[in-house]
Amino acid sequence: MFEEPTSSFHFPSMEQKILDFWKKADIFHKSLKQREGKKEFVFYEGPPTANGMPHPGHVLTRVVKDLFPRYKAMCGYHVARKAGWDTHGLPVEIEVEKELGLQSKADIEKYGIEPFIKKCKASVFKYKQAWEKMTERIGFWIDMDQAYITYTTDYIESVWWAIQEIWKKGLLYQGYKILPWCSRCGTGLSSHEVGLGYKTVKDPAIYVAFKVKGEEHLYLAAWTTTPWTLLSNVALAVGPDYDYVYVETDDGDQVILAKALAEKLFPEGKVVKEVKGNQLAGIEYEPLFSFVKPEKPCWKVVTADFVTLSEGTGIVHIAPAFGEDDFQVAQKNDLPVIQLVKDDGSFKEEVTPW
What we know:
Low-confidence stretches: none
Mean pLDDT: 92
CATH topology of the largest domain: Rossmann fold
Structural class: alpha/beta
Number of strands: 12
Distance between the termini: 80 Å
Shape: elongated
Strand order of the largest sheet: 5-6-9-8-10
């Protein structure tokens, strides 16, 4: 039924012949016309950004994208397969910043927002031909002649329309979301963008004693790798099923921490009491800092399932403004969010010492 290929058979040449035939005979558009009037399978491509060269990872994702429209077309659906170009995003802006020698968001504003946007628009299709060539070479059938572009007015207005419809349905609300932030760019980052500048750095880890409210010599021992977030502390979290002890120190104070870590931190200390974590819940303590008045009650012990005993004290400092787990704990326990850091990474004016 098929000719058996020889050992010297050159697959790339065969592929190129097929591609040439498809192009010459306009097979893609003929396949669309053949299925006109059939049930629609809508496919809008998750658009790439064309201001960077395509790489092998893009080949993989585009091959996978091609599988589903082809399958649906073979099942008799009419699949228009609309291509798209992503012209927004930090990668585009960073490339233009490098070209113009700009170092910060303030530099962009000084240069001028409108001129900067024009430069970005001019740069987004820098490698458009390379993308089109790669797309054709791998046999990805998609309508690139009628592609949607995210910077066009009609596309932007369609996004605003969608937001308006969500608002009309009462599904839009204002709140907080935890995400990586770039103090240089003054914007939130996607996980992909964080990975572009990832590096291993050393940060100080410290132990902190929180004085229990109404007790003269009783403290809760917490451990943190982000000391700068202590200004926004609203709670301390313990593991509900862990064992905790009250350890008496040489100076007569008592410190509460996980039993499993007590000997490591207080080898000479005396255990005077032992409790489960859930028995500590609700204990109030005195705040380390009070630069702003919280909008809700806080500064108390809560329970959380992410507390571990691998290091630290078994008591976790909670700052909802700076961590996803912390934020979820705050939502669950109706705790406030204290945000004392500005967009540029410096402390707000209320933080007078710094």
